Amino acid sequence: MSVNLGIPAVRSSGEGNLFAHEKFQSAAKRELKNEQLRANLRHATHTIRDKRLNVVSELPDWEELRESGSRIKENVMARLPELLEQFEAAFTARGGVIHWANDATEANAIVTSLIRATGETEVVKVKSMATQEIGLNEHLESLGINAIETDLAELIVQLGHDRPSHILVPAIHKNRTQIRDIFRAEIPNASPDLTDNPKELAATARAYLREKFLNAKVAISGANFGIAETGTLGVVESEGNGRMCLTLPETLITVMGIEKILPRWEDLGVFMQLLPRSSTGERMNPYSSLWTGKNGPDGPQNIHLVMLDNGRTRALADKNGRSALHCIRCSACMNVCPVYERTGGHAYGSTYPGPIGAILSPLLTGITAEENSSLPYASSLCGACFDACPVKINIPEILVDLRAQDVEAQHSVRKAPTEMDVLMKGASWALSSGTRLKFLEKGLPAGRLLAGKDQRISWLPGIAGGWTSSRDIPAPPQSSFRDQWAQREKFQKSQGSQQSQQSQASQKPTGKQGE
Amino acid sequence: MGAKEDILSRVRVALQGDAPVTDIPREYRQSGTMNQDQLIDHLTDRLVDYKAEVKVVLATDLQGAIAEFLANARSVVVPHGLDAEWIAGVADADVVTDSPEAPVPVDQLNATDAVLTSSAVSVAESGTIILDGTPTQGRRAISLVPDQHVCVVPASTIVEILPEAMPRLEPSHPQTWISGPSATSDIELERVEGVHGPRRLSVIIVKDA
Predict the structure, then answer these.
(1) Gene3D superfamilies annotated for this entry (chain B) (predicted)?
(2) What residue numbers bound the domain in which B166 lies?
(3) pLDDT tens per residue across span A169-184
(4) pTM of the model
(5) Tell me, what CATH number does A257's domain have?
(6) Which of A322, A421, B168, B177 is the most buried (most CB within 10 A)?
(7) B119 in helix, strand or coil?
(8) pLDDT tens sequence across A312-335
(9) Domain count, chain A
(10) Min distance A412 CA to chain B CA atoms (Å)
(11) Separation between Cα atoms, residue A392 and residue A66, nearest integer Å
């Protein structure tokens, strides 16, 4: 009989592209200065959210679908060991091979060895958050394997040596002229006369990638769903690049987070109504592919799946934050978020931007990891993300919980008394006496010196720095309320004596009535 | 095997002490209310919205409708189980049959103008046509690589909402769900039809004669 010690020996924290390397607050400050980005984002998020509202209002049972979706995911988390084993049995029975990866390093090593076994040095890729999370492209590149992104936006980002800024429309921060310049510079055989017409740009990408699709021997994908009872994998997309990758090459390697499981075939009927409407605001995305292992001469002959943890079990262990794993990567939350709309996706640092990223990244890595502790503060807690989420993830509640975890973590590393204690003692001393407060208020004009041209203070020294690290303070007024009150009294008194003189004067007829 | 055990053991530890799982409520619509004419109208409306071309015909006019859509195709590929009558009206094009035993090479598919297939199930509400790899629909590659896809939808295969379609589908068959032609909105959110899949989707809805 084995004894369960309750502490798994292997590390469980997420790694790869999950870390913000800079505090959100300072990254946001820089990104806010990018006017092009803000204009593009505003247009994009507003357009998508309006489309989404239209198609959601078409469904009389939208709330019932959300409720079922949410409860199916809850059910998945609670039954995960059993469902994962059921999925593995069904997938394997149909000729697929499953590999398990604790973290990004292991997943990258598995994919690399699978590619090496084919002898290929170039692979085509379907857009996938999981492979971006583990930094697969960078890893393969360092080993001399060229992974070509085939989603148009991902291709733009890859050719532009850039990073995605949105999980649905990763190149939304680039406008058409910038894209034309990237294509002219980076796509061999691109016409020097290429204009910035989106049709022409798409045709250029089509011609460039078609040759790759027809010759590729290995493809890499993520998966939107894995169905436990049947062993089926599913990918939703728009352009057909996914279909090309999933059906033409000989070898298909899929990387999927362990939380992507759905118990039953019929559950797909719920999620395929929730996902497209929430993400692109369409009734259905143009193409979805579903495959269950090998299918004779239809599709790849070597079917591999890497089951990825990379911090998911850590997030699962957080009972308050666990529901972040319900996320189906639709991006509805970022399209309604006032913070995301202004800062853009790069400010979040991690693969997952926006409200979901602000909870998912720290849950996967742990709140103490690098700069990820700043992410739960990247929110006004307005609640729009909760309303928009098709699987009802209570993002604001999890944000508050993670802030509490962060404060606790900070407390444990600091020496007593805390800054807060000192501040509170000081405030109590000042506020308990009118004379003391009056004396302190004399210092207000000095505070104005700290404010910038925009009349906002975004940095305070010493113990007050904790406050300004995540918010700006309006510059203090020229003078205190007391002083202004005293001024007003004085003014009214002098006005009062003048007025009584005037009112006496007005009783005399002047001959200029109604003036 | 090591990683699998590590992961499952961490999952079990994470779930320790949790309350038992409750049933999943499924209060959403499980069946539609439309009659066949309404289903055809609804599906047509959705498909046209996606910029697909749609013809609604009686079974007796199917051959003519196919010939009209394929008027400009010089070469057409068909799956081996397709009714030979369907393509008989297309006189001017080379017709190639794809089968599991003799799959058409991808280079040849790339040089082929059009593909003609049937379909398994269609969902009116979302404008989705589902192909399931059976002999009237063929391998996934044939409906992907040529530039035009002419797809026949028998009226009896149309359902109103997705939950009605799920039990009609066999999960072990590879499936392609098609809602309009290939499209992208990645450049300034301006929709462009036809990136990598067929640029033209031509749908023929066949009413019972």
Answers:
(1) NagB/RpiA/CoA transferase-like (3.40.50.10420)
(2) 33-182+196-207
(3) 889 889 899 999 999 9
(4) 0.88
(5) 3.40.50.10420
(6) B177
(7) coil
(8) 999 999 999 999 999 999 999 999
(9) 2
(10) 24
(11) 7
E strands, chain B, are: 53-58, 75-79, 94-98, 114-117, 121-123, 128-131, 148-154, 158-159, 175-178, 183-184, 192-193, 200-207
Give the pLDDT confidence of A113-161 residue by residue, as tens digits.
999 999 999 999 999 999 999 999 999 999 999 999 999 999 999 999 9
Under 8 Å between Cβ of A328 and A223: no
Domain boundary among A323, A355, A384: A323
Packed helices B2-15 and A80-93: angle between N→C axes, nearest 10 degrees: 150
- Residue B207 to chain A, least CA–CA distance (Å): 24
B91 shares contact with chain A (CB less than 8 Å): no
Residue B167 maps to which CATH number? 3.40.50.10420
Is residue B90 within 8 Å of residue B67, measured between CB atoms? yes
Tell me if B72 is assigned to some domain: yes
The whole-number pLDDT of residue A461 equals: 65
**B positions 134-163 inside 8 Å of A (CB):** 139-141, 144, 161-163
Contact B186 A78 (CB under 8 A): no
pLDDT at residue number A9:
45
| A125 domain residue, yes or no | yes
What b/e string do you get for A135-166 counting C-beta neighbours within 10 Å, with b at 16 or more?
Answer: bbbebbeeeebebbbbbbbbbbbbbbebebbb
Interface predicted TM-score (ipTM) of this complex, two decimals? 0.96
Residues of B in contact with A232 (CB under 8 A): 171-172
